[in-house]
Amino acid sequence: MMRIVLLGAPGSGKGTQAQRLQAKYGVPQVSSGDLLREAVAQGTELGLKAKSVMDAGQLVSDDIVLGLIRQRLSRPDAAKGFILDGFPRNIDQANSLHALLEDLGQPLDAVLLLDVRHSTLMERLAGRRICPKCGTVYNVHSMAPGATGCSKDGAELFQRPDDKEAVIGKRLEVYEQQTRPLVQHYAKLNLLRTVAGEGELEDVFQRMESAALTRGAPAGKVKVRARKVARSKSSKRKTAAKKPSTKSQAPAKRKSVSGSAKSKSKSKVARRKAVPAKAKAKPASKKAQRKAKAPAKRPARKK
């Protein structure tokens, strides 16, 4: 069973990857854009209204899209699952889709977000070409030089009106304003799986497949341990930064010991200077001592 929704900006490759998942797992790709274009091709009243809106780069009303999705999911080939591409685009549509799927007994298993840079989106959209017969998507930047037809049936490729440069900017602006909040919405429900959308098609598909088959725990029962560990490590680093290292203390101790020795030396010198001068006088020589002890000479007598 694979009941998933694909999220991503226009040109992120949702349609291409949905086709690959459909071919491998046998569940239908339900593209709101394709459903609307079919209605436009049939020339119905709703189709004509949808055409004028799409050509201007705007979004078709929710009632029209939800009605088309309900009809598509009621077909036998959707009993084992589906790959919903292009819907929902905002929180209100997500809530409406949830009610619809609950009514059909087909709740979502996962929501896959294809993450692609803005510059890459612009290049993909401006260069995208479509085969009118088989619906294969091409890009002029990756096609062989001079090629203008489908490699499968030879049909001449065409550019969709909403892929022209005048409309691309508006489409991306609408996506950022209305669809980005869905990321947080489905993350809270523990349904969101983010997939890197750039690189070789096969590599992106493998990442998509792995994310589509991943089943998360019910919302509310998820314990985010990684964040607690991260905070613990951060606090340890801060504590370590506050405590001075033992190496930084060593020089201070050496300085204090050296200063003590110098003070002791100075005190000894001061004591030596304080000794009386008499104590420093040298004793008289032995000759001088004998002279001092010898008796004085008597004067000579007159005859």
- Identify the CATH architecture of the domain at 2-116 and 178-209: 3-Layer(aba) Sandwich
Please give the CATH class of the domain at 2-116 and 178-209.
Answer: Alpha Beta
Order of helices and strands: EHEHHHEHEHEEHHEHHHHH
Structural class: alpha/beta
Percentage of helical residues?
A: 40-55%
Tally the beta strands.
Answer: 7
Share of β-strand residues: 5-15%
Uncertain segments of ≥5 residues (pLDDT<50)? 217-236, 238-270, 273-281
Characterize the overall form. Answer: globular
Give the full name of the CATH homologous superfamily of the domain at 2-116 and 178-209: P-loop containing nucleotide triphosphate hydrolases
Largest sheet geometry: 5 strands, parallel
> Average pLDDT across residues?
77
Instruction: Report how far apart the termini are.
Output: 164 Å
Number of helices: 13
Task: Provide the spatial order of strands within the biggest beta sheet.
Answer: 2-3-1-4-7
Radius of gyration: 46 Å
- Could you please say which CATH topology of the domain at 2-116 and 178-209 applies here? Rossmann fold
Kindly list the characteristics that best describe this protein.
single chain, 303 residues, alpha/beta, Rossmann fold, five-stranded parallel sheet, two-stranded antiparallel sheet, 13 helices, 54% helix
